[in-house]
Amino acid sequence: MDIATIAGIIAGSVVVAMAVMVGGDVGTFVNIPSVMIVVGGGMAATFIRFPLKVVFHALALGGKVAFTHKQTDPMEMIEQIAVLAEKVRREGPLALDNLEIDDPFLKKGAQFVADGYEPAFIKESLELERDQNLKQLDEGQRIYKAIGDAAPAFGMIGTLVGLVQMLSNMEDPSTIGPAMAVALLTTLYGAVIANLIALPIADKLSTKGKIVDVSQTLTIDGIMQLSSGKNPNLIREMLVAYLPEKTRSKIAADEAAEAMAT
User: Of 35, 107, 109, 241, which residue is the least packed, with the fewest Cβ within 10 Å?
Assistant: First the structure.
């Protein structure tokens, strides 16, 4: 469970709700025609821009990433690969057969090595899966961004509709209030949907894509070194290049301190 997403949505909703309650009657901020214009219009525009199947998959993917986002620790992944390399070095590739590995991508690569597939096939297969994962995240990011762009635009359309209704019926004062509500609330709904839901999830999908790219590319390189029977310490040193500069400096300092201690 991603606490940051939940906390952000709750905090944003509370801020808006407090502003609504302090300003007057909550019921005045509920308008079904405004919701229909913003939500219906935004989704309609998204369906026009993207295939229907892709949109539904992206919506589910965005929810999954936003609320169940799991941070992958590259250093932990490197250590897991080093442990597998040590196991292969001592017991052979078959030691990886049906081994319990938490990360599904690493597990698949290890199973390829255990099954004795050619290195070229292993690399091509894992790179294809990585690219497909990145493609899905990119599509999800673009779709949520499209919703974030469309919601305020349809909010403005709703505002224009409300203003036209109001101006065309100025002789009947009873119609001015509802028309003005549509005019203003559609803009509010569009801004809230875009800035509290759609665009933050789009950014989270983009961030997830960068994390997956680094993590799975690191895993592919580690599996390739694993399949060639490289020394675990050598594999660890090669994969450390994927870590941020600050982490690499800390590792170097820790190793230097250990060397001095011994």
Answer: 241
- Residue pair 168/190 in contact (Cβ under 8 Å)? The answer is no
The H-assigned helical ranges of 24-103 are 32-35, 41-49, 52-68, 74-91
Asked if 22 and 36 sit in the same domain, the reply is no
Residue 228 φ/ψ region, left for φ over 0, alpha for ψ in the -120 to 50 degree band, beta for the rest? alpha
Q: Within a domain: residue 91?
A: no
User: Rounded CA gap, 210 and 217, in Å?
Assistant: 11
Copy the structure tokens of residue 54.
Answer: 């892709």
Residues 125 and 24 in one domain: no
Q: How far apart are CA 140 and CA 58, in angstroms?
A: 4
pLDDT tens per residue, the chain (262 residues)? 567 777 888 888 888 888 778 766 777 788 888 888 899 999 999 999 999 888 999 888 888 887 776 667 788 888 889 888 888 888 888 888 877 888 899 999 999 998 888 989 999 999 999 999 999 999 999 999 999 999 999 999 988 887 887 777 777 777 677 777 777 888 989 999 999 999 999 998 998 898 889 889 999 999 998 888 888 888 888 888 877 777 667 666 665 566 566 5
Q: Please, are residues 61 and 205 in contact by the beta-carbon 8 Å criterion?
A: yes
Q: Is there a single domain that holds both residue 26 and residue 154?
A: no
- Statement to judge: residues 133 and 255 lie in one domain: yes
The total number of structural domains that make up the chain: 2
Question: Which residues form the domain of 235?
Answer: 32-74+121-261
Identify which of 101, 134, 132, 71 has the alpha carbon closest to the alpha carbon of residue 226: 101
What span, in angstroms and rounded, lies between the C-alpha atoms of 121 and 148?
41
Same domain, 54 and 3: no
Asked whether residue 109 is domain-assigned, the answer is no
